[in-house]
Specification:
heterodimer; A: alpha/beta; six-stranded mixed sheet; four-stranded antiparallel sheet; 11 helices; 10 strands; 23% strand; globular; B: mainly alpha; 2 domains; 8 helices
């Protein structure tokens, strides 16, 4: 079986000389939910951009990224972006249309679907994301939590087979976080979640990858990796409290 | 935070708001062209248009104070342009006529933008086969004006909270910094937005 995501020896250097990725390698199996954790500046966001081929200068670099068996490169962009739905960190970057409907419809329209099908997909995606009936609202009138869910609807409307999320729970209130967690739990496709929210990782991901200074420093079953206090502290992370309740030893 | 300084009343319910966006856009554009082409010998036409506009404003239930303030805010530009008329013979008459013309045009646009949601106007433009790139640009502009103002406000607040001794010369310098920062941030944001568009299949 081909892996949903396979990254091999990936290097990346930004134009200003920042060496963001230094030989990253990992794979995500079909249907798996994987957490991607690491301190600020570890290269998480850069890595996620690679999964959508959004850093054109990367094709000249070393290493390879394969999504569902397809090598990410100039000729496969359309296919790759169709497969991988990317939720950006700042919802304002992602919501670029004057109304929620137009924003969620953006992806399906780019796929060339007829109007009726677009409408149906938008309604379905908004319902899935927990914001049914938001079609006529303007993005700048939504709260951060609502914005995030509408962004998620915009991604789901494209019917991706892999969901890649960059800090999905940042700047949400506890209730917003809980609702988002429930939503993500219900979406039964392969997920790669980059986050500082370790409780979210414990609850949603069976496996976790720790990234630091542009390289994978550890990976394995979530509970095992997060319980390793030395490892966590070494990489500016911490052992989440929730583990105590799971493992009362 | 107020996010409706541009078109606060565009979603009210009134006969004017209910009229189709296409009709309103056609009428508004026609009025503007007619007013612009109006010869100086026919000032009464201008008065007639102004009366009609006032009637529309009343019908639309947009608070008149808001409309007046909006037009007054734009008036300095009008004065700047009309001032040039003072340098020719019979300047005063021409000056007043120009101010009147421009003010009526402004009233038309202020009324249009406060009785019609911008997204409806864009839809009309798209239907009229306006180049897609131009429509996209306009819609992005409308969307991000709010984000930009938010950002400017946040930067302003951050600055104010650390300004202990306000001094005029210092103030100009900080304003310059804020403007340049905004420019840089906007261009970086533009790159992220473009990435987000590509991620959802934009070509």
């Amino acid at each position: 079986m081909t892996a949903a995501v396979e990254v091999r020896d990936l290097h990346f250097r930004y134009g200003d000389g920042t060496h963001a990725l230094r030989g990253v390698g990992f794979s995500v199996a079909e249907g798996e939910s994987v957490g991607l954790i690491g301190p600020n500046g570890a290269g998480k966001s850069t890595l996620l951009l690679h999964l959508n081929g959004l850093l054109p200068e990367a094709w000249r670099g070393e290493g390879s990224v394969r999504v569902g068996g397809v090598q990410v490169g100039p000729d496969t962009l359309h296919e790759v972006r169709r497969k991988v739905g990317l939720l950006f960190q700042d919802p304002n970057d992602q919501l670029f249309c004057p109304t929620v409907f137009e924003d969620v419809a953006f992806g399906p329209q780019q796929l060339g679907l007829p109007e009726a099908a677009v409408r149906e997909r938008v309604a379905r995606a908004l319902a899935e994301a927990g914001t049914p009936g938001f079609e006529a609202r303007a993005p700048h009138h939504l709260s951060v939590g609502e914005k995030r869910r509408v962004c998620l609807a915009g991604v789901l409307a494209c019917d991706p087979s892999i969901l890649v999320l960059d800090e999905p729970s940042s700047s949400l209130d506890p209730r917003g976080r809980r609702e988002l967690k429930e939503l993500l739990r219900q979406i039964a496709i392969t997920k790669l979640i980059a986050t500082h929210d370790l409780e979210l990782v414990v609850e949603l991901c069976s496996r976790v990858i720790v990234l630091d200074e542009g390289a994978v420093v550890a990976q394995g079953p979530t509970v095992e990796v997060l319980a390793d206090e030395d490892l966590m502290l070494r990489h500016n992370l911490e052992r989440p409290h929730i583990l105590r309740h799971l493992h009362p030893h | 935070m107020r996010h409706d300084f541009l078109d606060r009343y565009s979603r009210l319910d009134s006969p004017i708001h209910r009229a189709s966006a296409a009709v309103k856009l056609v009428v508004a554009l026609a009025l503007v062209v007619a007013v612009v082409l109006l010869p100086a010998s026919r000032p009464m036409f201008l008065v007639a248009v102004a009366v009609v506009l006032v009637a529309v404003a009343v019908l639309s239930r947009v608070p008149w104070r808001f409309l007046v303030v909006r037009v007054l805010l734009l008036e300095p530009f009008v004065l700047g342009v009309a001032m040039l008329a003072l340098f020719q013979s019979g300047g005063w008459r021409m000056f007043l006529f120009l101010v009147g013309k421009c003010t009526v045009c402004l009233m038309v646009m202020v009324l249009l933008s406060n009785t019609t949601p911008f997204s409806d106007l864009l839809r009309v433009l798209k239907r009229w086969r306006m180049p897609a790139l131009l429509v996209t640009t306009l819609s992005l502009m409308y969307r991000y004006v709010f984000v930009l103002v938010d950002e400017a406000q946040r930067m302003g607040r951050a600055r104010t909270s650390r300004t202990f001794t306000p001094r005029r010369s210092r103030a100009w310098r900080t304003i310059a910094t804020v403007v340049s920062q905004l420019f840089i941030r906007s261009s970086e944001r533009a790159e992220r937005i473009y990435a987000a568009m590509c991620a959802r299949g934009w070509r």
